[in-house]
Design a protein that fits this description.
Length: 259
Amino acid sequence: MTEKFVMLTFDLEEFDIPEEYGQTVSEYDQMNVTLSGMERLLKVLEKHQINATFFTTGNFARYNSSLIKKLAEKHEIASHAMYHSPTHDFKESDIEESMLVLKSITGKDVSGFRMPRLRSFDRSKLSGMGIRYSSSTNPTYLPGRYNSLDKNPLPAMQDGMMELPCSTVPVFRFPLFWLSFKNLPTGLYNSLCRITLNSRKNLMLYYHPWEFADIGDYKLPGYVKSPDGEKLTSKLELLIQSLLAQGATFVTCSKFIGN
C-alpha cells in the first residue's frame, strides 16, 4: 500500500492581521496572542506525537528565542522572512536575514521558505541561498488576493528546488487552507482532506498559531476570527484523528522531500 503523508504546517508570526482591517495592535500584544495560541496548539501536537513545520518570521524568533530553540528539538523551523506586517517593504535580504536569525537560535540550517501572505516574489534566487523547498503557492483562485490556477497543484521541482503547494481538492482546486478549515463544517472539511489524501497521497495544510488564541474581541471579519480558541483547537484534534484513522503519516516538509 502506498504511504500517505501529511505535512501539518503553521505560519509562526506576529498577530498583525488586524492591520489589514485598520486596527492597531501593539507589538507586545501581537506576540502574546500568538504565544497563547501556541500553548493550545502544542498540547494537541504533543498528545498525538506529531512533528510539524513552523514557518517562522525572524522578528518573532528574536523576541521568543527560548520557544524557537525548544520547538527545534522536535519540529522543523523554516523561514517566513523577517517580518509579516503588510506595511513592511519586503526585500530579498529579509529571507537571508531570517535564515541567519533562525540558525543562530536553533543551531540548525534552514531548508524551507514560505512567503508572507503568499505574495508573488522572485523565487529564482532561493536555491542559491540554501533553500531546498518553498511552500509559497496556493494553486487556486482567491478573489481579491490571487489567481494561481495556472500553478502546478502537485509537489514538483522548480527553480532548482522543490515547490510544495498548499493542498487543493483534485479537479475543482478548492483550497484546503486555514480559512476553509475555520469556516467549513468539520465533517465536510475532514472529508475533503481525506479525498485529497487518497488521490494524491500527500497533504500540505497550513494554519496560524494565533487562530487558536481567543481573538473574538478584535475587529476582524467573522470568517477570519471565528471559530477560535478551544473550539478551533477541538476542530484540529478531530482532523488529526480523522487522518490518522485513514493511515496517514505526519511528517515535516524536509522529511517529505527526503522521501
